[in-house]
Amino acid sequence: MAVTLNRRGFLASTAGFLALHPFSARANANQAHLRIMETTDLHVHVHPYDYYGDRPTDTVGLSRVATLVRNIRAEATNSILLDNGDFLQGNPMGDYIAYERGMKDGDMHPIITAMNTLGFDGSTLGNHEFNYGLDFLMKALAGADFPVVSANVVKETGATLREDTTLVPPYVILDRELTDGAGNTHPIRIGLIGFVPPQIMTWDRRHLEGNVIARDILDAARAYVPQIREDGADIVIALSHSGIGAAEAEDMMENASIPLAGIDGIDMILTGHSHLVFPSSTYDNLPGLDTAKGTIMGKPGVMAGFWGSHMGLIDLMLERDGDGWRVLSHQSEARPISRRNEDRSITALVEDYQPVLDATMADHEETLAYVRRAVGKTAAPLHSYFALVADDPSVQIVSNAQTWYIEQMMQGTPHEGLPILSAAAPFKAGGRGGPEYYTDVPVGDVAIKNVADLYLYPNTVRAVRVTGAQVKDWLERSAGMFNQVEPGSTDAPLLNPNFPSYNFDVIDGVSYQIDLSQPSKFDRDGAVINPDANRIVNLTYDGAPIDPAAEFIIATNNYRAGGGGSFPGTGDTIVFEGPDTNRDVIVRYIVEQGTVDPKADFNWRFAPMANTSVIFETGPAGAKYAGTLEGMTLEEAGTNADGFALFRMTL
């Protein structure tokens, strides 16, 4: 049976493990070294395991971060460990607890068990804490041996912000003792205040509307930080589950960490939400940031990646000033748990801390059984063997799930009522992956790990607002997948080997044909090379030719919406940035539907070309599906030297 160490016992057990940090070594009487450690966006990654791929991994896991924590504690005389939110949802272990096992009064959530084992001193709420509803959240938090704070989620409004009744305490003051350089102990009062993006009211409308409201982050900070100081805090730490965005303040900012750091009374800021690392070169030369010093608006700051990829660390040299403390100097860094090598292999930099694994092993084993068990059924086979030549069920289910999700997200926004389209591409479609690199889920049960086969990447959902003309050009860009074919050709090669399958977007919600006799309008990098080319013909919406001036919402992912692939209509047209991965949306969609029937609706085809045939390659295992493609005549045409099956298609 695992033993949960208290904070004092944990520190004592690791004393002398490593050499002291220079701040500890240099501290004089009335000076103390305090180490502030951060985790953020853990998303229930306790064990170093990829539940979607059903295999171990060295890039994630609180059990690995725990070893860094032990080392840090051993290097310093004084330390605290804080979490910055998004701990309750985000992988199949979280879904298993929420959807399968449930939380009754008195139950322990595995991420809370792991955090208790490691001895966290405090946390804040992230946006994903609300994904399973308020009742689930509060039952999970009840097991925490540490305070959880959030200043801008309100149950009842007061005459002023200070008089609001918040869902959890807006802040807390930790009474601790610091040991100075002479070995003497002194009291210190550490204020913790937390914030979450107010966009939770959109992202989790069905759980939150009528139950809570979200305040502006900066307004809440201005209301409560002076109160924390009035209550005697020596230093104030902002737990900002809000990314590093614009330096200029705006109302209801999602990524408000820079202007938040500028508020008087806040001494340092722990950030998250963006799944990035600060300090790092990602944030070089941005207003309000100094990556060399690790500061945000001149104050120490840190962001520790995601899923336990890093542990954030702020080192403070403090000096006792009268009855309080002031910061003399500071350092910030984010320590990784793994390293990616030049050959793209991964080297683990730390081992697991076994007590964290032991405390949650039963939950881990139950999660493995869960991911290997069906979460729904499919009435159509989900395969990608012909995804590059015909409308395809493996792409269809992604489009269906994205449409289902964005329809909910657009409710109550200025974009409600606009037609919603969905763009999705096949990821496993042979190519460099070889002749077995295809999705193939038969009719029947769908397990969560099958979803990884449908959607390989941890992208997050986005929506863009575009015109009909941009829809057409989006499809023109996608049609670069194909070579130009001379009418009357026999066995012309169809697929452009230099065009990646993940850039072959199919847009669901419209109907269209691709005229292969036309050249591609765009080159492989997205530059216009044939401005008069029109491969996309007979493009219709709701049975009528699409209006170039009409407006549409397209559900897609963060890569595409942000300009990945250089598609027209992306980069600056984003109207919704979802907190959920596309993969999680597919899982939720299957769970809600029970049985999905993502039969291809053949909304796109090749335009007919008399007396013309083309050759394309696919996986040999796809032969059993060759006769299921509506309106297409395919013939097997042997195999090539790489082991791909060749098929002839008459246009």
UniProtKB/TrEMBL annotation:
Where is each 5'-Nucleotidase C-terminal domain found?
439-568
Biological process per Gene Ontology, one example term: nucleotide catabolic process
Q: Which residues form the Calcineurin-like phosphoesterase domain?
A: 34-275
Q: Which family does it belong to?
A: Belongs to the 5'-nucleotidase family.
For this protein, what is the EC number? 3.1.3.6, 3.1.4.16
SUPFAM superfamilies per the record?
A: 5'-nucleotidase (syn. UDP-sugar hydrolase), C-terminal domain (SSF55816), Metallo-dependent phosphatases (SSF56300)
- The name on file for this protein is 2', 3'-cyclic nucleotide 2'-phosphodiesterase
- UniProt cross-references to InterPro entries, sorted A to Z: 5'-Nucleotdase_C, 5'-Nucleotdase_C_sf, 5'-Nucleotdase_CS, 5_nucleotidase/apyrase, Calcineurin-like_PHP, CpdB_N, Metallo-depent_PP-like, TAT_signal
Signal peptide position in this chain? 1-27
Compartments where found: Cell envelope
Cofactor requirements of the protein? a divalent metal cation
Protein species of origin: Marivita geojedonensis
Give a yes or no for keyword Transmembrane in this entry: no
Q: What is its main location?
A: other
> For this protein, what reaction is catalysed?
a ribonucleoside 3'-phosphate + H2O = a ribonucleoside + phosphate; a nucleoside 2',3'-cyclic phosphate + H2O = a nucleoside 3'-phosphate + H(+)
